[in-house]
Amino acid sequence: MLTPKITATRELVSLNGLWDFAVDDGKVTAPWTGRLGTRLQAPVPASYNDLFTDPSIRDHVGWVWYQRTVRVPRGWAGERVIVRVDAATHHGVVYVNDQKVAEHEGGYLPFEADVTDLVDAGAEFRLTIGVDNRLTPDTIPPGTVTVRSDGRATQTYMHDFYNYAGLARSVWLASRPAVHVADVTVVTDIDGATGVVDYRVAVEGDADVRVRLIDEDGREVAASAGASGVLRVADAHLWQPGAAYLYRLDVEAVVDGAVVDEYPQTVGIRTVAVDGGRFLINGAPFYFTGFGKHEDSAVRGKGHDDAYLVHDFQLIEWIGANSFRTSHYPYAEEVMDFADRHGIVVIDETAAVGLNKKIGGGIADMLGGAGDKDFADGFGPAMQDAHRREIRGLIARDKNHPCVVMWSIANEPDTMSEGTDTYFEPLFALARELDPTRPVTFVNVMMAPPNVCRVSKFADVLCLNRYYGWYVDGGDLVAAEEHLEQELRGWEQMYGKPMIMTEYGADTIAGYHSVWDQPWTEEYQAKMLDVYHRVFDRVETMVGEQVWNFADFQTSSGFFRVDGNKKGVFTRDRKPKAAAHALRARWTALKGARIDADRKEPS
After folding, report:
1. From edge to edge, which strands make up the β-sheet containing 194-204?
2. Are the C-beta atoms of 337 and 377 separated by less than 8 Å?
3. Sorting pLDDT into bands at 50, 70 and 90, what band is 595?
4. Which of 84, 86, 459, 603 has a Cα-to-Cα distance from 370 of 20 to 30 A?
5. Cis-peptide into 45, omega within 30 deg
């Protein structure tokens, strides 16, 4: 599904802004058949949970409804008219007037509906979108809904971030020709100084295809005809971490010599590979520095915000980081586009988080090994089907982004239970079938060390989340360093694969200080990170470090978290803690060392 864009043959109208909003309390049937009759309004994009002072809205479990009037531009006569929803968390349904036109499961990927036959150019229509936030044992991510004796529905889930819901990303009205470019797939390679761009185009309708590759100065550097082909670019500018260069592939659908549709696809020429214990980008070893992040901010929840997008990337640049993981779901497409343009490397993750009942029981269950003996007892075929859908949707959406160097198909699943390998092996195979050009991984949880984990054998890269010094060896950094290195040596000896520490860190209250190794202080967070860095520098197959987390973020209420997770090196409003300055010193030094190494003449 192509991202809607404005071209010479396509137009785009943003439907962002204030929509009428109502919580479905069960008293109104078929709310899409007329006006909602509500005094509430909610902004799009934004999660709805933190907008209102009424706790029954924040804690609502079930459907909510958004509604507005939309006018189709009068110049769209004869064009196909599309309603596109960038995300609806977690189940969305779309009505045009009284007619249902689309339904979608999965809260972080886009969906659309062709509404041409239901609307008229120049006329208005009523657009109603329902969003259901319920998570069940068969959804990705999973959860459980319980109805209490007083009739209230409550939601529990097994991931440690707040279940924000609603229309957190943009909604669009788009036009496109009846005969149009339906999909574009680009795969790049490097042959000496020549860039190689392998392209495939799908067209809806009967049309010929022409393509032209344009450089950043607007010059045509290659061209071809046909729905598939290979373009070769002499002296190509490569897309590099920290030094992005983007070409534009202009794709044209042609009927009887006339261009009936055009679509521009950005292209970054680069290669990704795993070589023994090394991770290579453009044939050179790459070391990941950065974060696990969240789409999270006050009031907006998971609502996309361009101001936060720009500021977060500025902080990533300031701190010297070169990468992040989209923990624990696909991020907004605007984020991926921005990473493409600014040379930030991305590990792209599905929404498969919380597939672990041992975590759901809390820290005691995590360390004590509670939960199902057989993975299928908790997560069965229906969830596996949903998981396949999420992998397909993620790769279909993000396959052309040069910033994406690896797919992560799950975060911290229960990989120690029987049946886990049976569940995951076909999912790894599916990801590789859909995209054989990128490594595939998952993120391993702490209670699944190398002699226990049943799934790491399928991964191209070992991604590990570890909390020695916090959940284990809490307050004892000497023991933490010993046990961390011992485990990493075990992974290295057993697999010899590249390893990335995709989570490590400590909860920290900004402004809390101590001269001792006191947990929750800014000093302890910085010292704990330093322990990990010393170990990383001694382990040859470590190829990256991504701190948990970029910024403090909201979690479900309870006694384990006080106003959210405080592991951010920045506060929720993006103020640096002491650890941010310590990381800046390390990562800028690492970046400088690698630049100097690249400049050395070969012996």
Report:
1. 180-191, 194-204, 228-233
2. no
3. low
4. 459
5. yes
Whether the link from the prior residue into 549 is cis, omega within 30° of 0, is yes
C-alpha–C-alpha distance, residues 263 and 253, integer Å: 9
Name the active-site residue from 503, 522, 523, 545. 503
CA dihedral 419, 420, 423, 425 (to 10 degrees): -120
Token pair of 469, please? 């010094």
Contact criterion met (CB below 8 Å) for 510 and 523: no
**Which token pair is 382?**
């229906």
Lowest mean pLDDT among 178-192, 312-326, 352-366, 392-406: 352-366
Q: Taking the mean position of all CA atoms in its chain, how far away is CA 331?
A: 4
- pLDDT single digits (tens) 241-298: 999 999 999 999 999 999 999 999 999 999 999 999 999 999 999 999 999 999 999 9
Domains of the chain: 11-176 (2.60.120.260), 180-267 (2.60.40.10), 287-596 (3.20.20.80)
Q: Give pairs for 225-232: CB < 8 Å, separation 24+.
A: 227/200, 227/201, 227/202, 227/203, 228/198, 228/199, 228/200, 228/201, 229/198, 229/199, 230/196, 230/197, 230/198, 230/199, 231/196, 231/197, 231/199, 232/191, 232/194, 232/195, 232/196, 232/197
Contacts of 452 (CB under 8 A, 6+ apart): 415, 416
Task: Measure the N-to-C terminal CA separation of the chain; round to a whole number of Å.
Answer: 49
Report pLDDT for 376.
59
Model pLDDT, residue 559: 63
The string of pLDDT tens digits covering residues 141-177 is 999 999 998 888 999 998 999 999 999 999 999 999 9
Q: Are 439 and 474 in contact (CB under 8 A)?
A: no
At residue 370 the predicted structure's pLDDT band, cuts being 50, 70 and 90, is: very low
Catalytic residue among 79, 349, 390, 412: 412
**262 catalytic residue (yes or no):** no
Q: What is the pLDDT of residue 25?
A: 85
Residue 88 identity (one-letter amino acid)? A
Report how far Cα 266 is from the mean position of its chain's Cα atoms.
19
pLDDT (mean) for 467-492: 96
**Side-by-side strand order, sheet with 247-255:** 220-225, 208-214, 247-255, 258-267
Asked if 245 and 270 touch (Cβ cutoff 8 Å), the reply is: no
- Show Cβ contacts of residue 97 under 8 Å, excluding neighbours closer than 6 positions: 118, 125, 126
Cis peptide, bond prior to residue 328, ω within 30 of zero: yes
In three state form, how does the secondary structure of 119-172 look?
CCCCCEEEEEEEEECCCCCCCCCCEEEEECCCCCEEEEECCCCCCCCECCCCEE
pLDDT at 361 over 50: no
Identify the three-state secondary structure at position 89. strand
The percent of residues in the chain predicted with pLDDT above 90, rounded, is: 87
- Annotated active-site residue 204? The verdict is no
How far is it, in rounded angstroms, from Cα 335 to Cα 108?
A: 13
Residue pair 433/409 in contact by the 8 Å Cβ criterion: no
Task: Give the containing element (helix H, strand E) for 239.
Answer: none
CA nearest 442: which of 419, 409, 418? 409
